[in-house]
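Section 3.1: Structural characterization of target chains.
Under the original work plan, the team committed to producing a structural model for every single-chain target entering the pipeline before any wet-lab resources were allocated. The record below documents one such target. The sequence was received from the expression subgroup and is listed exactly as submitted; it comprises 305 residues.
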Amino acid sequence: MATPNILVIDSDEGFGTMLTEGLQYSGQYRAKCVHTGSNALEAVIEEQFDLVIIDMGLIDMSPITLVQAIREAKSGMRIMMIPLIGQDLPSQIKSLNINGVLTKPFFVGDLPDLVNQALGRRVPVQAAPPVSKGPAALTPPPPTRAVEQKKAIVEEKPAAEAEADSSMLAITIVPQETIRFLRANESEILRYLDDLNIEVRAEAILLIAGTELIAQAGMLDRAHCQELTMLVAQSSQAAAQAARFLGEKAGRFVQSLHEGEEYRLYTLSLGEGILLSLALSSNVPLGMIRHQSRQVAEQLSRFII
């Protein structure tokens, strides 16, 4: 039996990547991830897929429009949808003969069975073969372990590794309503970030919600800012664990600073999972960075619901 090829379409790059890796390391599928509807259409037209998995939180294109466009391009394409957490699929989507639904939260061990149903085949779930090399080596956890976070796939690891990786598994989840409101006001948020950049001339200024990059300013391009976003989110979570260990009342540090000989990374917490982070030259006075960042943070606070 040929290995099914699956396309994952999710604007949340962190979750999309983790879902793709979860499919690949199940040992049953090949998988690819894209983050926009336009890229998804290009991939469907140019490549051969057995199933596409579309998240209802897609940003650049209506999921309904995307499903219709995919079906026009490849009439027999099987489609699986990921509803917004706590919601059912809209009736317009249901009327398009969707082949499967991946509801959050879900059991990681159930993923192959759910995908196989969407593919229209019944294949016994088998454990993935052990992978001994490479930093991305993952082993799917048993079906008794549920994903508690809205967008996180948790891989089973030996106890020592799991403890060391705990910061990776507990990144604060920001409500979708907050993310949607932030994105709806992106142009105004970007104006504040640009004004801040005029004052500090940063390599990058990022507004982050969970693991999602809401807006950016500075000299770094989007791809590098996306990578920096994940690193900042992970670093912030590790710092929050340290704050709780030390008994910090808020359970997190309001601000953090990493200094090198040439660059600083300064991060200010605007709320649970909402971060304003600046990467900039070390010759910018720290007092100026803090003052200007706090002023912008006050302006941005009205967009956090």
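The first strand starts at residue 5 and ends at 9.
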